[in-house]
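Annex B.
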Amino acid sequence: MFSQNRAAGEWLKGQSRGTRVMLRILLAVVTAYVVLGLWLIPQMMRAVPMDTKYWKVKILAALLMLIPVYLGLRWGACRFSGRALPESQGAETPGTEKKRCLLWFGIGFLLVFAWMMVYFYAYFPGSFDWDNLDQWWQIQNHQYDTWHPVFHTLIIALFSKIVNHYGFAVFMQLFLYSVLCGYLLYTMAKWRFPVWSLVLTEIFLVANPQTHRILLFMWKDSALTLFMILFTVYLIQIFKSGGQWLKKKRNLTVFILVLISISLVRHNGILYTIPLLILAVLFFKEIRKECALSLVLMLAGMWLIEHPVYDLVGASRPEQTYVETVGVPMTILCNIHEMAPESLSPEAADFLAQIGPEKRWKIYETGNYNSLKFVTNANAVISDTDPGEFLKLTADTVRNAPGMSLQALYQVTRMVWDVRGTKEWHTDLEYQIRENDWNFGYVESREGLREALNDFDEWMLNSPLDYLFSYNGTHLLVLILCTLFVFAKKGKGWKAMTLALPVLAYSYGTMLLLCGPTYRFFHFDSVIFIPLCLLLFSSWGEGEKTV
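Glycosyltransferase RgtA/B/C/D-like domain-containing protein: predicted C-alpha cells.
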C-alpha cells in the first residue's frame, strides 16, 4: 500500500505544472467534501445543542481522516487516469451496424414503455396535486399566468389539443420519456459504448421507483427530466465527435432550442444551462464560437418567449415576490421557534406570531418549512415584510442560536448532498389524485393492481437498492469522483469539469431555495449521472460517426 501511494505521488509530480496544481486543489476540495461534508457534519448534527467534548472528538477524528482520504483519492486519480472505457466491436457493414443500433433503441424504448404502461393502466389517468390542477384549469380556461412556467403549461396545452384529457397528457409524457430512453441507448450504441454500460444505463432508466411516480404527474420536474435526457444525448454527440457534431447548423439549432427549453421549463433551469455554456466557451476551444452564439441566442430566445409569446397567449404576471426564495431562512426561523423560542429576537418572534395560531404550529415538521407554508398565511406575512428587515431578523436569530441554525440548514438541504437519508424524502412522491372539477379519478376495479404495485415500490424504497436510485447525494458523489479521476487524462481536464460542474451548480443552487425535502427537483440527476460518468471515461474526439 505504501509503495502504491509513493507511486501515486511520483505520478502526480510528473504531471505538467498546471495540471499538478489544479489536481492538488481538486483533491483537497473533494477530501474536505467527503470528510467534513459527508461524514463530520451529519455526525455533529446528531448533537445539537452541542456537547463540547462530543464535538472535539468528532473534529479530531475528522482531522485524522483527512490525510488517508486525500492519499486514497490521489491513488484513485493515479489508477484511473490511465483507464479508458473499452469500446464494443462494431459490425462489419454499415447496414448491420445500423440494425445493431436500432436493436438497442428498441430495447431502450420497449422495456421502459412496457413498464410505464403497467403503472399508467393501474393509476389512470395519472397523479396530480394542486399545481397540476391549477395548470389544467389554466389550459381549459385559456388563462395563463407565470406562477407556474407558462412554457410548461403550453406544452400540456399542446397535448390537450390532440385529446383534451389529463390522462392523455400523462400518456404522452410517458411515451416521450420511453422514446428518449431509446434514443439515448441508440446514441451510446452508435459510439461503441460497451454492452454492460448500456445495460447499466437502462437499469437506471427503468428500475427507479421514483421515476414512474414522478412521471405520472405532469410536473415541470417531469418535463425537465425529459429535456435533460435529450440534452445528454447531445453532450455525448459533442464530446465523442470532438465538437464536430455541433458545427452542423441543424444540430446547433436543436441544441439551442433544447437549452431554451431547459431554461424555461423550470425557472431555475438557468443554473444548469448558463454555467455549461460559459465553461464550454472557456475550456472547449473546438466549439467556443458555437457555445458563445448559443448563449446569446438562448437568452434572446428566452426573452422572446417570456414576452411576445406569453403576451400573445394573454399570460398574466402575478407580482413575483421573494417569498419563493426564502425557504432556508424560514426553516431556520421555524426551527428556532419550536426548539429555542428564547433565542428569537422580539422582531422575529412578532414576525412568526403573525404566521398562524399556536395550533397551526403543532403540525410543523422540524426542518420542513413546507409542512407549515401551505396551511398558514406565511406568504402574505413575508410579502408584507421588507426584505432587508427579513434578512436582519434572520441574521439576529442565527447569531443567537448558531448551532440550531446550522442544524436547520442541514435538515433542509441534506436531501441534495448527503449519502444517508430518511423515508421522509419520498413523501412528496406518493401516488395521489385530488378532488377536481373534471371527474378524474382512479378506476375502482384496478385497486388490487395498484396495491400490488405500491407494495413493490415500497419494497424497493426500503431495500438497499434505494441507496442507488433515490439518494441524490450518492449520484453527485459518483459524478464528482469520476470527474476527479479523469481530470489528469490527456484531453480531459477542464472539459471534464464542463460536464460535471453544471449539474453541481444546478443541484447546490436549487438546494438554497428549498422549503423542504422535495426530491423531484433533482430527479434528472438519477437518470443522467450514469451516462455522464461513462462519457467521462470514454475516449473523446473520435470524429463523427456516419451511422
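The chain is about 70% helix and 0% strand. The mean pLDDT is 90. Further annotation is deferred to the next reporting cycle.
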